[in-house]
Each structure stands twice: as C-alpha cells, then as structure tokens.
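Quick question: what would this complex look like in 3D?
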Amino acid sequence: MKILPQKTQTNQSMTSGCITIGLVFIFLLLGPLLTPINHTSQNLSASLQPPSSSHWMGTDYYGRDVLARLVFGGRITWIIAIASTFMAVNIGTIIGLFSAYQGGWIDLIVMRLVDVMLAFPKLFVVLLIVGLGASSTSLLIWVLALFSWMEIARIVRSEVMSQKNRTYIKSVRALGLRTPRIVFIHILPNVLGPVIVSSVLLISTIILVESSLSFLGLGVQAPSASWGSILNDGRIDPLGTWWLSVPAGLLILTTVIGFNLIGNGLHKQLDLKKIV
Amino acid sequence: MNSSRQKQPILEVNNLHVEYPVNFRGGFRRQKKQAVNGVSFTIFPGECFTIVGESGCGKSSIIDAILGFVKIKTGTVLFEKQDLTKLTPKNFRKLRPKIQPVFQDYNQALNPHQRIEDIFRETLPKHLLESQTDQLLSSVGLSKEIIRCFPHQLSGGQKQRVVLARALSVNPALLLLDEPVTSLDMSVFVQIVELLISLRKTRNLTFLLVSHNLSIVHLLADRVAIMKNGQFLEQQPLTTLLRNPKHDYTKNFINQITQL
Ligand SMILES: Nc1ncnc2c1ncn2[C@@H]1O[C@H](COP(=O)(O)OP(=O)(O)OP(=O)(O)O)[C@@H](O)[C@H]1O
Ligand SMILES: [Mg+2]
C-alpha cells in the first residue's frame, strides 16, 4: 500500500472528538465517586440550592443532588442513544443490503418507503408516538430506532449498488457462491466504512432528539432522569437556577459536538483510504 | 482443429441480443442502447475462440450475457446443450463453476478484505484445502508464501495468477478471458500468456478470449471473430483470416499484426 503524505498529518477532528467523548465518558463512569448521594434521594428543606461544598452542583426543586442526577441522567441519555443507534444501524443495514441485492421492484418499493419515512419530520413523529403511549425508556429506544434507520438503509443501498457490479463480486458470483455468502462475506465488509461514519453521527442526532423529548416532558420520566429532563427542571428560571440548565445543556452540547467530530474524523480517514 | 470439429460444441450462442437502458436527459423516455446485435458462434472443446474488435463494440457484454450478469433480450446460450437462459437461478448457480471468467482489471478482481488463503477456503473442500491450494498456486507459478497476504500486497502479475488459480479451483471447462493480460507490463504479459497456453493443455480447457491485443491473439487463437458495432463481421480460423480476409476492417487488423 502506498503511503500518502496526508497520512502523516494528524486527524485533528478525530483526536479532539475522541478526547471530548473520552472526558464525558470518564465523567459518567467515575461520577458516583464524586458524589456519594443517591440521585433520587429527596430533601425538600434543601430545595434549589446553588452549588456548595455538600452539593457541588447544587440541588433541584426536590432537593436532589444535581451532580448525581447529571451522572445518572447522562448514563440514561447515552444508553438510549447507543441502544437505538445500534438497532437503527442493524435494521438499516439489513434492509439496505436486501433491497439493493434483490433489485427490481422490491428495491423500488423499499426505497419509496424510505423516502416517505424520511419525509416525516423525525421529532414530530416521535413526539406523536411517545405522547400517545405511556413513555418508558424501552419504548423510547424502539421509537427512536424505528425512525432513524432510513438514512443508514439509503447509504448501505447506494454502497451495495456500487459494489454489486465490481469485478470481484462478479467473480465470486461466477464461482457459484450462495447469495447470503456473497452479501455478508463479500459485500458487507466493503460497505461498513460509511455505515460506521453515519452511525456515529446518528448517535448525536438521537441524543438531540431524546433531549428535546425529555425537555418537553415526553421522554425520560421522573424520578429517572436524562440531561434533557434536567434541562427541563431549570426551565422556569434558567438564569436564577443556572446550575440546573447550564451544566446539562453544556453536557448535551459537548457530547453532540464530540460525536460529530469523531464522525467527521472517521469520514476523512476513510476517504484517505479510498485514494490508496 | 478437424478432430475438435467432430465433437459436440461446448458453447453455442445463437442470435444473441443485449441492450442497456440509457436514461436520456432525466429519463422519462427510456432509451435503449444495443450493445450486442445478433451474434452467433459455436465453441468446441479444447479450442480457443477469440473475439476481436474496437473498444465499445460489445465484447464484454457477450461475456456478461453468458455469465447471466446482464439480461439477454433475445437469443440462446447453450452450454453443453443446456440453455443457460432457461435455467432456474438455483440450477444456474450449480452450473456456474464450469464457466469461469478472468477479467482485465486484476486490481478489482479480488476482495480487498480477504487473504489469499481465504479465497480458496470458499471453493475447495476442507480436507483437501492445504494440499490443493499448494498445488493450484504452484500450477500458476506462485509460491505458497503468499497465502497470508492481502491482495494489495501482491503485484499485478501475482494478482492475475491468483485470479487464475481461483478460477481453476472449481474445475472449470470453459474460461472466459476478457482482456486477461492487457493491463500487465510486457514481461509479465508474456509469462501469463505462456501460463494460459500450458494450462489449456494440461487441464483440457476451452477458451473464449476477448482481446484487442494482437500478440495474444496470434499466440492463442484457433478461430477469430471480428466484431464491430455489436455484430460479427466474419469468423475464420486464424490462418485463413490472415491469408484471406473478407472485410477491409479485417485487413486493417491484419496489417497491424504483421507489423508487430
Ligand atoms: N451497464 C451498462 N449500461 C449502459 N451501457 C453499457 C453498459 N455496459 C456497457 N454499455 C455500453 O455497451 C456498449 C458495449 O460495451 P462493452 O463493455 O461490451 O464493450 P467492449 O467491447 O467490451 O469494450 P472494451 O474493449 O472497451 O472493453 C458500449 O457502448 C457501452 O457504452
Ligand atoms: Mg470490455
């Protein structure tokens, strides 16, 4: 393999994204060490207190420790985002592979379905469904996944279309290999790059959607928490109770930017590889 | 030549038409491009039938049609008397190993994520894997050190040899060689042609060769078809064609050969 001069340049986007996400991850992992207080234990006499030595990040309306809630809520936010991204990527990849390899009218119908689903504003549909049903975390994960797989399916499909007529696919077809083998062993590994990039970007999209839902009171329900719901707690007086809104908002922002940086970094990395 | 004429044909292509949809300006009106326009030929076991013609005349489309990679508009393709166009996908898949293609772009012919040894794991039976892989690699002049390599770690000539070994691993009767040596440099070119000549003898292979490279035609071809705009202008044994060409187009082609 030829080594390109660009390869020696560090991928700044990637590095800063990894550092950002790494820091947030460490915060979520080791957060409980910073505060021994349970995130649900209430103390109404200590309601809405600004940061102090006993509560480093202050308390919320019910006197619960905000730091503990940020750690716990962050874990929920991350788990929801990663779980629904994982599901969306699986659904999208399988549908994209299937649609492209079958071709013909099956492909046509599946892709029109994707178009229709993409035409709905994601937040609106998710809002509608979650608003109608009783919201639980697992329902939230499902709904977010069911409205996020389409872009992945599109990417996979267009990649498979471009791989399908490559010489090496023709060659293995001519050997008489079975279709599932060709699709999963020969095509899939060669379309994974763009899928990984868009899954990382999808994580941050889903974090934003989940935060918006929780902010609107439709996502994660009390006494559980997510960054969006903590942001919501500080909604009434965002300046007066800044220790509720600002840290939660910053954590959402940092995480979203971090995942986007990693996504862009991966994109660059994979583009470099294509030239080689 | 004469003895092979008395045998049953291995491949018989009759009145083959292939067309491609062309989307013209946004594409509401579907246009069709005729790539192959009524081609017929017969290949007998052991011979090398060669199609020669300028770029874009439809040579690769014939190969894709035989392999079932493009839809055949009309015409039949009989392989050992079976009409490939009428086989079910499952039966076609079972027959596929008998007909193996070798393409020009050896850089694209191997899965970049697959080690050489894994290529053969897909086609050879497990208990014979090691011995047969060694045997195949040595029959195409490769040492067995390369089995742990990925394709990008091999040279062009080595890749094309791996492609040949992979094709041979399923015991084909007919090789479809689409410009097999055109993009190799001269010394490798000669080696691969010599390899093809010896493999044809030792393994009783039949070749359908497509090339506009005149030296390989000279070295390998038994019969030659001259193709232009999706049709054959004439088909002759190479020697007859050289002595007694019918078309001006063919004469031009022969002039180019004799200049070499
Ligand atoms: N997938 C396709 N879609 C549309 N048109 C095609 C397609 N493949 C080939 N063609 C057209 O069909 C004609 C014949 O193509 P083909 O590849 O068979 O030519 P060829 O003789 O192999 O040329 P070359 O020597 O350059 O390989 C060309 O005009 C080409 O543009
Ligand atoms: Mg061609």
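Answer marked as accepted. The domain at 3-46+55-275 of chain A is CATH 1.10.3720.10 (MetI-like fold).
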